[in-house]
């Protein structure tokens, strides 16, 4: 029988893989739209429609990420521990940098989300989804977080790859005693988008 912590970790890895896939699809749809609705100089044909579609991209990306938002820091922390347990010959040189990049992106996301919650708490009771007084600040938050969400989608694959590597290799001897409590088998890695 699978340990409950391992089952939960597997579920979170699957949710991360789904986010990576959805973020790739959202970005591809945006790139297609942007290519079709801008001139050779890169300026949009209709700035209002372009801005609306960009705001939709930002909101869709946040909505997809929100599924893993509460567990993202734990996923990265576990990957960091797993990385330390991997024999050096199985460690990809970019993984440590990607883990650091993910921590930075998640830190900014958490800060910006906290700021949005503070703003939302000051809004009048009449401000709710569908009302500009609510939707405007929310769209601003989504625009601010998009870069960091993109960083997570670019580098999140490392979390899946590290998990796969730890499952396929024998941990370093000094780390073997600590392996029992770590989440084990995870979701199959998602395809990288770049």
Characterize the structure shown.
The protein has 194 residues and is mostly helical. It has six helices and no strands. The longest helix has 33 residues. It starts with a helix and ends in a 26-residue tail after the last helix. The C terminus is likely disordered.
The CATH topology annotation reads as Four Helix Bundle (Hemerythrin (Met), subunit A)
The percentage of residues in β strands lies in under 5%
The helix-and-strand class reads: mainly alpha
* Domain module tally: 1
| Residues in helix, % | 55-70%
CATH C-level label: Mainly Alpha
The H-and-E topology, N to C, reads as HHHHHH
Kindly provide the radius of gyration, computed on alpha-carbon positions and rounded to a whole number of angstroms: 19 Å
The overall pLDDT average reads 88
What's the architecture in CATH terms? Up-down Bundle
Low-confidence stretches: 175-194
DSSP helical segment count: 6
The best one-word shape is globular
Per DSSP E runs of 2 or more residues, the count of β-strands stands at 0
Distance between the termini: 37 Å
Largest sheet: none
């Amino acid at each position: 029988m699978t340990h409950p912590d391992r089952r939960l970790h597997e579920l979170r890895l699957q949710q991360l893989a789904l986010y990576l896939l959805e973020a790739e699809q959202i970005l591809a749809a945006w790139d297609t739209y942007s290519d079709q609705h801008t001139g050779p100089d890169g300026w949009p044909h209709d700035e209002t429609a372009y801005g609306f579609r960009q705001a939709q991209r930002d909101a869709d990306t946040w909505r997809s990420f929100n599924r893993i938002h509460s567990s993202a820091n734990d996923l990265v922390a576990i990957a960091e521990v797993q990385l330390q347990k991997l024999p050096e010959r199985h460690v990809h040189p970019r993984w440590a940098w990607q883990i650091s990049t993910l921590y930075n992106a998640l830190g900014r996301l958490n800060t910006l989300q906290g700021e949005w919650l503070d703003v939302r708490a000051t809004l009048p009771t009449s401000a709710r989804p569908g009302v500009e007084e609510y939707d405007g600040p929310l769209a601003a938050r989504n625009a601010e977080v998009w870069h960091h969400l993109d960083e997570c989608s670019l580098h999140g694959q490392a979390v899946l790859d590290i998990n796969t590597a730890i499952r396929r290799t024998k941990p370093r001897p000094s780390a073997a005693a600590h392996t029992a409590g770590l989440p084990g088998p995870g979701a199959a890695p998602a395809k990288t988008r770049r």
